[in-house]
Amino acid sequence: MSARTPITAGNAGKGGKMGDEALLTVTNLCKTYGPQLGCEGVGFAMHPGEVLGIVGESGSGKSTLLGCLSGQLRATSGTVVYQAACGAVDMNRSPEQLVRRVSRTEMGIVHQNPRDGLRMHVSAGGNIGERLMANGERHYGGIRRKAMAWLERVEIGADRVDDIPAHFSGGMQQRLQIARNLITNPRLIFMDEPTSGLDVSVQARVLDIMRHLVTQLSLSMVIVTHDLAVARLLAHRLLVMRAGRVVEEGLTDQILDDPQHPYTQLLVSSVLAH
Ligand SMILES: Nc1ncnc2c1ncn2[C@@H]1O[C@H](COP(=O)(O)OP(=O)(O)OP(=O)(O)O)[C@@H](O)[C@H]1O
After folding, report:
1. pTM, whole model, 2 decimals?
2. Quick check: keyword Transport in the entry (predicted)?
3. Which domains, and CATH codes, for the chain?
4. Residue 172 class from Cβ within 10 Å (0-12 exposed, 13-18 middle, 19+ buried)?
């Protein structure tokens, strides 16, 4: 693997403010599906306030890695230790109930397909509000007010609060997913190709909103994308994956401006050629 400048508090660029203690520490992570390799030998540490991009071609293991990091998939071996408010939690070995609780209260997941992250026939307000209820809020009026404020924050009019996501455009559905995930003040957000199904102009708006929210809320984020422009815009640091392994990692601008690994060079040059 080609490794460069380790990320530290202070060299983040892109306005990131990072804490010293790792939020996520991944060691020798491996996931297989029967005989099929998902990912192997993955290790890195991620700090609070950091945006980590995972890039690579289709089938390189990006979604598998994201699934293991977020506790949605159990790894075959290795560890993913998340520094939760209650202490360190191994997302792969801790009891499922604890992993689910930490995931619900401290993490958020924005899926590539809004159908995986939204209830399409529940109102927009209901989609956002149920996250607050799951975390113990019971005051209906307060939940509705907060839901409407978050709709405005992601540039969906508060007057759409009673509409169902099935009646929203693709860009609105992704912005609703973002609101649903951020309303509970998570510390760590996972995004799996959040803009890949959208038109370029719609993508730009969603990315702009994400960029502002990440900065405003000092969020930590892991974003999977095959789009290097998205990675350049949002990520402080990149992991480049190929055939299940991380082949290069480093600060985003360094990797994209001066790729060291032949595979990364190919990836970058194929984008420049378009
Ligand atoms: N449920 C599964 N059962 C069997 N093999 C799987 C499963 N999920 C993923 N794989 C395999 O694991 C490898 C990595 O797949 P993964 O979906 O993580 O890649 P990816 O980089 O996210 O691809 P894409 O960009 O196309 O979503 C592939 O060879 C894939 O076929």
Report:
1. 0.89
2. yes
3. 2-115+186-272 (3.40.50.300)
4. buried
